[in-house]
User: Fold this.
Amino acid sequence: MSLNPSINPHVSTDCVIFGFSQETLRLLLIRRSIPNRLTDVNDIHYALPGDLVRDDEDLDKAANRVLSELTGLKGIYLEQFHSFGDPLRVTKPKDRAWLESVRQDPDARVITVAYMALIDANKAVLQPGSFSKEAVWLPISEVPELAFDHNEIFENALKALKEKVQIQPIGFELLPEKFTMSQLQSLYETILERDLDKRNFRRKMLNSGVLIPLSEKQLGVSNKPARFYSFNRDLFENSDSRYLNLRMDGSFSLFG
Amino acid sequence: MSLNPSINPHVSTDCVIFGFSQETLRLLLIRRSIPNRLTDVNDIHYALPGDLVRDDEDLDKAANRVLSELTGLKGIYLEQFHSFGDPLRVTKPKDRAWLESVRQDPDARVITVAYMALIDANKAVLQPGSFSKEAVWLPISEVPELAFDHNEIFENALKALKEKVQIQPIGFELLPEKFTMSQLQSLYETILERDLDKRNFRRKMLNSGVLIPLSEKQLGVSNKPARFYSFNRDLFENSDSRYLNLRMDGSFSLFG
Assistant:
């Protein structure tokens, strides 16, 4: 079988990139400019960075290429989280003009394999390309109507992220090398979109083994200086299990 | 756009069905009969139940249809767990004869969306159909070479199942309504493929809240009679979180 390096009309990949900056969880979106036949002025639409898979690339590689082409982001660890295949997902009238402007076969049914990542938005250098006119970070509370079923994909990814942060030590790379318990709690509160009980949080985090207490403490604060911690990376990288169960000991939820 | 109820040549679904019976974890496989041009005798190949998706069905529906057509199993809750898209996954010579015998376009690249389930093998009524000549349960330690990348899909599903059983209350439907701690431990040991420390297991299970201790005890045993437990279904069905974190309180693994 000879592989055709052309585009597969039936399979795409979409990337849900969460970014943390200024204590806010944000979503990376691209802006597309779409000809409007009625007004003769281009409409602006938001979408997740996504595009069709090439016939000669595997799914992980396709996701990385598409993200890079549309937003400039490279070398990000993208985790596949779910495939979406409603037969009508690309048939809405609102998406028709754009489909016709970019696709050879706008009638083709498209199944999309969705990926997600959580990164430091401050360190991300955005450089839109291909059909993406702009790449922007929007706070997750301000996500507008998106193309296709992208709102559904985003909602599913957000739910998956909230589950994940409670069973895996993710998000630590968003903090400075040395951080206080308050900074860590603030990160968790942002991702989970709710307030957490300070004592419970502290106890569960300390019990988890994920933190290394440092002798160093905060300088130049008027109150009692807070202790610094660092992330116990070795424990996770050398452990059989990458799971961290913060939900339980006696209760069913981490911060219940 | 008119939907074509025909087959999508580029997307398939595969089902990894784990079955528990006689204290053994088994995998449901279909046997296919493939013409061998050299020997004139049909070769027998094993594969996961899987087939192409129709253009008018969503992925969950496709998985259920395919499973039912090939094995007779109906009404099983299938969970999507990963999509596999190596461009070369259906190009191996060993799979060629079969592809040519059943596919209109045997050269088409196929991306597969994989589903999994864990069921009681004793209650499953198997009735093979379509290109499946037989549907069989094989102990997971005796899984032979399978079609395409099905060994990889099975290994990934097994890994996912082992993670899952430690953070979600799955598998309880495989036990009688009232069960002893030993029966529960035996189920976990079978799924995790390793021995567990009895005291640790008991403590974590009791702390989890997932068990309701019954006043009833075993009858007709010579030793100290064991207490019966039932599964605290309400807690999970009415809970915000379906997660049960058995891995931690102070340690990183459930049974470490």
